[in-house]
Design brief:
The structure is a homodimer. Chain A is α/β, with parallel strands linked by helices. The first copy, chain A, has helices spanning 15-32, 46-54, 65-73, 88-97, 110-123, 146-157, 179-202, 218-224, 240-244, 331-335; strands at residues 10-14, 35-36, 60-62, 78-81, 102-107, 127-132, 161-168, 209-212, 229-230, 259-270, 273-276, 291-292, 299-302, 308-311, 323-327, 340-345, 348-354. In chain A, strands 1, 10, 11, 12, 13, 14, 15, 16 and 17 form a nine-stranded mixed β-sheet that branches. Chain A has an eight-stranded parallel β-sheet with strand order 2-9-8-7-6-5-4-3. In chain A, a hairpin with a 2-residue loop joins strand 16 and strand 17. Chain A is elongated and about 70 Å long. Chains A and B meet through helix 4 and strand 10 of A and helix 4 and strand 10 of B.
Chain lengths: 362, 362
């Protein structure tokens, strides 16, 4: 089947670009001697996770327990949940998933750590816990410093928990445009992470894992050392925002745009405008408007939940039924709108990958 | 089960408010002698469609063929697709769905009308077609005036198509805050619709259906007469944006907020901030930030795809594991992120309704 025969809107993955992205991140981590644990929040797909594991990933990150449940059921054997799992019901689900895969989870709260211990004991299994340190993200996590060591000791004090290390993720700097500023931000985050790790070690505990980083700082973090494990997500797909930042030592981004939405023209109400069948329910707008790959001169405007408008400076070279390839501004939230990836090579459809954890926000 | 026992984030429908909204719109249409054809794009749920039909709706609107396929398969017998169905593949799907339900579709393009006729002939069934007139939306549709009559005659000239009337939807004025401006906009749209209908009738054709309107202009359109059928969608759920506009003859909106997202507190990193487990993948941001119902003084800020931050002017009265009810700014795009509605009455869970057409954007 040819791409042009697909009903629209449809989410496409360019297999060649995707495979190069997977290989490049794998090599970057291998060369630096750092573990690669890609973030599944970007794809929510067991098929993509399997490809990342085959390329050498030590496991996957999940933003939500629901994602981990899907990947564990699909046979991915090593998972790390990067957001606290809170409450008795979710902790029961967590221990159930931990029978299918090795799962670690972050914590930043003493009561939550007690709840995790109680849940693990009830389930009769040992849970791996990392303490989250806020190294600049300003979201979850304890402040860098002694509090990390206190919580690490608390984890270590529970028979049913195993302290594994620290999570030090700084998402805010991943898309900092200027590479020197990004490098400075990453260095500052690393200093906070290492200072916290030192205090944990001084308290007599091993810090086997220091996990963090993302697509934007991947080369910087790999070169700096310090982190034992990187958590990049978007590198497999990229988007207009990630592609636009300045990249370390290269004129072009080291990762290629591999994710697009194929849209169809529904109407040509005026000479300079085409109405597309893709609006906010087919391609996300939180990162700005998407870009029409074939028509650099055209401007995409959201025209409601189900429509987009493609405005041209002159006559629009498009008729009803024509198709347009849109490049998302934000890959993660676009993926979360779709149930499957249609994987293409050249102009042929090669495979369908289910986005099995789409919507698993619990 | 109690609401507070649910894992979060979770999409809730308050059954009492929802039922009052359904009844009020049904009465508004009945009293005015106008048909009620609620728009399924707002809920994408066969269960909600059934309740609307039981309340007297003549059928449902669908924005996409994919929604119509789901509702037809679920036994909803009368469907109108408010967006052109373009291309041989989709027209084949349309005729297949038209074996399960009575389906009408809009068109604004001569070639598309020929394609619909060819598809109907191939399938051996007759398709109902409405010509779409652009009465101000600036999206799909022919300009008001003679072009509508030309296309109506074109439809009528095909043995396998049945011309049913005109669609005249003006979405842009639905949320115009000032009720006088909204009324003026609705009057202008109606004038364009009626002028187009007159030209169609002068060409010798019946205009049985003149369909349009939305939640914001529902009372205005019903009072004005002219439209034979209203297409309101959001009235069943409402949201912060719709609730904020000025409403005809009433200090309060005639419809109540019935849709919320229950979020959980993941972390309390500072005295005046709580981090919630609900970000852009659980509640849409295209209409602005949601509002925390229990904490009017707090400001919700998106903190990424999976997190929200609730910032308080003073100490945040929330602990890890506490729950917060968020009111969406835009109901349609929030619904499209979830797989099911959890229907509640008081503080009890009463039912689960599948959002079976979620993501059906083709």
């Amino acid at each position: 089947m040819k791409i042009q025969e697909l009903d629209t809107p449809v989410l496409l993955v360019d297999a060649d670009a995707f495979e190069r992205n997977v290989a490049r991140m794998a090599k970057l981590c291998l060369d630096a001697g750092v573990a690669c644990r890609p973030h599944a929040k970007a794809h929510k797909s067991p098929e993509v996770a399997r490809i990342q594991m085959e390329a050498g990933a030590v496991g996957l990150c999940c933003a939500k327990l629901g994602e981990a449940e899907v990947l564990a059921a699909a046979g991915i054997e090593d998972l790390h949940i990067t957001t606290p799992v809170v409450g008795a019901s979710k902790i029961m689900r967590l221990t159930a998933a931990a029978r299918q895969a090795r799962i670690s989870v972050v914590a930043d709260d003493a009561d939550n750590i007690s709840d995790l211990a109680a849940g693990a004991q009830t389930a009769g299994l040992r849970l791996d816990v990392l303490v989250e340190v806020d190294v600049g993200q300003g979201r979850c996590g304890v402040p860098p410093g002694p509090r990390a060591a206190e919580l690490a000791r608390l984890v270590d004090g529970h028979d049913w928990l195993r302290f594994r290390g620290l999570q030090a993720y700084h998402g805010r700097i991943q898309m900092t445009g200027n590479v020197d500023e990004r490098r400075a931000g990453a260095a500052e985050a690393l200093e906070k992470a290492e200072r916290s790790a030192r205090l944990v070690r001084e308290a007599g505990l091993d810090v086997d894992v220091l996990t963090g980083g993302g697509t934007g700082t991947s080369a910087i973090d790999a070169a700096a050392g310090g982190l034992t494990e990187l958590q990049p997500g978007s590198y497999i797909f990229m988007d207009t925002n990630y592609s636009a930042i300045e990249w370390e030592g290269a004129p072009a981004p080291p990762f290629e745009n591999a994710l697009t939405v194929l849209a169809g023209v529904l109407s040509r109400p005026a000479a300079d405008r085409a109405i597309l069948d893709s609006g906010m329910k087919a391609i996300s707008g939180d990162g700005g408007a998407p870009r029409a790959i074939e028509y650099a001169e055209a401007e995409f405007r959201f025209a409601g939940d189900e429509h987009g408008e493609l405005a041209f400076p002159g006559e629009a070279p498009l008729g009803v039924g024509d198709k347009v390839t849109l490049l998302p501004s934000h890959c993660d939230t676009t993926v979360n709108l779709h149930d499957r990836f249609i994987v293409t090579r050249g102009d042929e459809v090669e495979a369908v990958w289910e986005i099995a954890a789409r919507g698993r926000s619990q």
